Amino acid sequence: MTTKRGLITDSFKVAKKSKKREKQEKSPTPTPSQQDAATAEEEMRKLKQFDLDWRFGPCTGISRLQRWERAKSHGLDPPEEIRELLLETPAYPEYSLR
């Protein structure tokens, strides 16, 4: 007399995923922290572009805001968005210094 032995998976209930849940998993919306990180990365990219642009003079020994103001006083027309970015984030040292 042999007993029929089943698979271990036969003792567990089969759980099926709903189609609504699968759609949500495929296209997650970015969380606010991810959006903030992406924004901060974009801002740093703009600041680095400003640092590397020699049209606005050398960047050694002065802050980014001082460099922007010096370029403006010499009529070199630096981007206004850089100044706005530097003024709205004064607490972050990575934004003010190169």
UniProtKB/TrEMBL annotation:
Signal peptide bounds: none
Any single Gene Ontology cellular-component annotation: delta DNA polymerase complex
Pfam families: DNA_pol_delta_4
Residue ranges of the region described as Disordered: 1-43
GO biological process terms held by the UniProt record: DNA synthesis involved in DNA repair; DNA-templated DNA replication
GO MF terms held by the record: DNA-directed DNA polymerase activity
Superkingdom, taxonomy of origin: Eukaryota
PANTHER family assigned: DNA POLYMERASE DELTA SUBUNIT 4 (PTHR14303)
Protein name listed in UniProt: DNA polymerase delta 4, accessory subunit
Lineage of source species: Eukaryota, Metazoa, Chordata, Craniata, Vertebrata
